[in-house]
Structures are given as C-alpha cells and as structure tokens.
Amino acid sequence: MWLLYAFGSALFAGMTSVLAKIGVKNTDSNLATALRTVIVLLFSWMMVFVVGSQYTIDTISTYSLIFLILSGAATGASWLCYFKALQLGTVNKVTPVDKSSTILTIFLAFIILGEVPTVWMWCGIILLAAGTYLMIQRKESDTTGTENRSWLFYAVLSAIFAALTSILGKIGIQGIESNLGTAIRTIVVLVIAWGIVLFQKKHVLIKNIDKKSWIFIALSGLATGLSWLCYYRALQEGKTSVVVPIDKLSIVVTIAFSYLFLKEKLSRKAFAGLLFVISGTIMLLF
Predict the structure, then answer these.
(1) pTM of the full predicted structure?
(2) Which of 8, 43, 144, 155 is deepest in the core (most CB within 10 A)?
C-alpha cells in the first residue's frame, strides 16, 4: 500500500511545481510560500480531525517531536530556496536540481538509517547525477554566455534542505500517525515562512496580489498538502531509499505540465538528461 502513497506523492508534487511557478510569477516568492503554507496547514489539520489522530498528541515523545520540528525547519528552508529559484529560473532547470536531493538522501539513509545499498542503487545514483547535469546545461542555441545562473544557487540549497527533510522526517514520524506528524511539521514551516515575510516587511504586498496569482497559490498549496500526506504515509511504512526515488518521479509530471501550460520545451541534451533521471530512479527501486 505504501507504494501507492509514494506514487500519489509524486503526482501531486509534480503538479505543485507548475502551479507554484504560475503563482509566484507576479508575487514575491517568500510571501507566496507563506500563503501556500497556510493552505497546507489547514488541509493537513483537517485530515488529522478526519482520522481522529488529534487524540494521540499527548503520546508523542520528546525525541519524535524534536525531529519533527527539525524536519519542518528543513522543509521551510527548502521551500524558501526552491520558490526563489523558480522565480529566477525555468521549471525545467530548477526541478532537476531540486530532485537531485534524492542522491544526498540515499547517502544519508545509508549512513544514518543503516539502509544497505545495492549495485542497482549505485548505478541509479550515477545516472541521476549525469541526468541532472545534462538537464541544467544551456541549450545548444545559447551562445551568448549571458544566462543568469543565480537560480542555481537557490536550487542547490533547496536540494540540500530537502534531503535533510526526508531523513529527519523519517526519524520523527516513527510511532506517530502520519497525518498528525505532517500537521505538526507544517506548523514549523508556517512559523518560519511568516517570520521571514514579517521581518522583510513583505506582508504589505498582499494587497497587490492579483486574482490569478491567488488561485494558483491556493491550488499549489492544496497539491502540496496532498503530496505531503501521501509522502509521509509512504515514508512511515516503506524504506526511505525507495520511497524518496519514487517521489522524485514527480519530475516527469512537472516536465509534462510545464510543456502544456508554460510552453517550456526541453533541448535534446535536456531530454537525454530526463531519460537518464528516469532510468536512474527506476534502478534505485531495485
């Protein structure tokens, strides 16, 4: 059953990137992240009350709570970096870098969680790294050398924090109903996101957000909430080194949606990189 949750997570995560890209187009990325988090928080706590897990809050150990808070903090940092990168770069380039967090997550799972790597996994990691490199290269037609690469800095930071999120979340979610664990983490993300917005005094920009941006920010928040609920249910029941690669197949959904709705096309080199990423992810499942 956890495999279905993992694939559900990938589907909704893939939708999130494109919906968020449209939502942050005319909105400050930090403000958009904070607004999205409100949607995720409301949705995640609604699910807590639907399944009745609010009655188990007092059974959460201090150890689990600490790791849930750390996981939420890592998620908040990853989000802020990711949506800043999306604002500066294209979905087709930012997403592969962010999804490369799979490689770091697997290494951390080997080291911290004691999950044993296989030969197939090592082959998958190599293909993932090669595919990511190909996907972030300039198009063959770009000969000016003036491409703005500032998005890459934020995308790399996003990947690092995303990897930490998975490991910390895996540790913190043990022995806790997955919806409740997700809801607790989201509180931490909300505090961080709105703390930064208030510190930067960007909350005053809310009145400037147009109707279209509001709709897509809300939709991306809903998609994120669904992705999280599926992801942490899968993470609770399955191995991190298998759940994470499946979740990262969301890149296929993202690329398809970015082509349909944002008209972003892949170069031949980037398409080859995408095939490498997909092949590497499939190998990790073995």
Answers:
(1) 0.75
(2) 155
